[in-house]
Amino acid sequence: MFQRAREDVFVAFERDPAARTVLEVLLFYPGLHALR
Fold it and tell me: CB under 8 Å, gap of 24 or more: what pairs does 27-33 form?
């Protein structure tokens, strides 16, 4: 479960050029919160 969530965060970070840090993606991206 945690591995899948980790992969989701890193994929979002890699694909979004506006993302500055992985922490930003984890805390502020609503799409990831909707997946959980």
Answer: 32/8
